[in-house]
Amino acid sequence: MKRGRARSVFIGICVAPAVILFIIFMLIPTINVFKMSLYKWGGYSNNKTFVGLNNFKILMEDMNFFRSFQNTILLIIIVTIVTMALSLIFAAILSREEIKGQNFYRIVFYIPNILSVVVISAIFSAIYDPNNGLLNSIIGIFRGSDKTPILWLGDQKLVIYSLAIAMIWQAIGYYMVMYMASMASVPQSLYESANLEGAGRVQQFFSITLPLIWTNVRTTLTFFVISSINLSFLFVKALTGGGPDGSTEVFLSYMYKQAYTNSSYGYGMAVGVVVFLFSFGLSALINFVTKREPLEF
Amino acid sequence: MKKKKVISALLVAAMAASLLAGCGNEGGNPTTGGQSGQPVGGGESSQPTDGGESSQPATGEEQVLKVAAFEGGYGAEMWSEVVAAFEASHPGVTVELTIDKKLEDVISPSMKAGEYPDVVHLATGREAALTETLTKENALLPLTDVLEMNVPGENVKVKDKIIPGFLDTLATNPYGDGVTYYAPMFYSPCGLFYNAGLFKEKGWDVPTTWEEMWALGDKAAEDGIALFTYPTTGYFDAFTYATLSSAGGSDFFNSCMTYEDGIWESENATKVFNLIEQLGKYTEATTVANANNDNFTKNQQLILDNKAIFCPNGTWLPGEMKDAPRADGFEWGFMAIPAVNAGGAGCSFCWFEQMWIPAAAQNQDLAKEFVAYMYSDEAAQIFAKSTAIQPIAGVSNYLEGDNKMFYSIYDNGATAVMGGFASTAPVEGVNMLDVLCGTVNSIVSGDKTVAEWQAAVESASDKLRAAME
After folding, report:
1. Count of CB contacts below 8 A, A vs B?
2. CB atoms A16 and B16 under 8 Å
3. ipTM reported for the complex, 2 dp
4. In a domain, B109, yes or no
5. Which letter does DSSP use for residue A73 in this model?
């Protein structure tokens, strides 16, 4: 009996640091965000006015907020689908096929991930440059006499895709390495017997590789949602500043603009609450939709 | 066995303690930013700053003044010098100087915790909008008595030393009630920059009306040169302020800035909107793509490369682009914005930085003394050495070369326009400058029409009017 108590005290002590830190740095701030969203407050003085759900009411009529919502969803969808498809393909090729310089590719694909977003933005600024940019120079070869430059960061219909391309480029390596790690643990024997049965490579991929790494894919889907929301803010901040004319504004950049530039901290926090609930809900939904019986091997 | 457990428990506890210790280690030392150049740390030893014995025991006790200044294009050094001069003339006073290019990020955390600097030099119109936020929250100290004070060491009142006109604007009296909250500091005329060498080479005349402007635009287009470019749409605040004032006079301009009902749909405002639309047609094709904080220098480079003729900017532009490559025979030219109405005078918005005292400042009397000291000849000369020009009569005489030409713009008949939008309580989701200036990108690229733009500005103005006190 006494021993059992000592044990729980010990466990308590061991867990305490993490729990305390979690409460201080996660729980209390989150509760604060929810609380602040009910106030009209500039962020500095003590003049906080309780306005109830008024901030949310304004939010529902704020077209700029909806535009940032649309942009965020578009980015989540495009970036997730394209990144996942490409990194799965690359991972499958690099782990299943015998290619010269495999490790070299592995490193090359991973490099974007260790670069900071600001560096990547500078690289893409150079690529997208309308006059001397890489992209326009290459496309210019095929366009013949048409000399009007394509404004990758200036055309409001294009710019969000330009942003997505940069995000995909940055993310592929990371997810590829993750998929490769789990593909490596799929037993070789399965592929051998599939070979004997006459299954082609594509069929092997869909019937063996994908089902066996499914748990991993599911986890990364949640990562995609969270990182798209977070990284899109960094890319927007460094690459376009939300422009031209707000056409690349995303959730968090809009929240920042409202909370700081527009001196409506409470309203910014209301945006924060919506982002919080949205990403939580979306992750839960994805988790629910992709639920499968885990396959054992 | 048991011993082992105790040891591991201790280890865990030690780890937890060390983690938590990291959190509570703030507050003690002030953020000096590392550039203050003054031996701030030597505060306790009661040595007078200038080595010798201080002959006047003026205040007797040690006082510490916390000054936070934005490090702009003029550099940080002048601030250290001014602070040193202030300390020398005020025995017993130690100034803790915080200076940074991102001043908001440095001072706002402690401000949120209730620790305010005594004096802040930070202009309005910055992205983090700290000055505006404090204004909207009514957290600034009125400077009325500073204006009545004598400039330290001189026999002149502060308000008599400042050039007339600078104290009657919304950029010093943000609530439009005649009470000054911001002290006007370094000013800079905004206008259109161009390559004077290009005009000589092509034999063009510098246009003085918009008619001549469009004619020049058509002529230059044949040579593959665009008439206009802009760094980012943020620069259209100065441009629209100047053209509004030119279109309807200063009363009209003030009505716009105080959100008068229907003012943005009036005839005079329409002239300005149409003017910018027309200008959009003459704007260099790649401008919009580079009109962001990352790439705006590419737009400014168009002037240096003779790919565009005019670019709206402030006098810091030549300094900003001083290392950039340029066309042969390049020579900076600077002119006011041509009159909107035929026969009227050109106009130039005068942008200036502001200094203010937070209402929560600890050391308000000394803070006021410091603000007053900024207008002394001694301080003005130190600033002028770094080409930071204060609105004190005669200070611009210290300038040489290009800078002299920039500051002489008002001597050549251009009307000075000063001010900015009146401060209101924050309105959620409505940002006037975003609507008024940000939309220019859409006008240039053809994504929005002038009518849509005008309606959006008027509707933002309506919402802000309701929030004015």
Report:
1. 152
2. yes
3. 0.86
4. yes
5. H
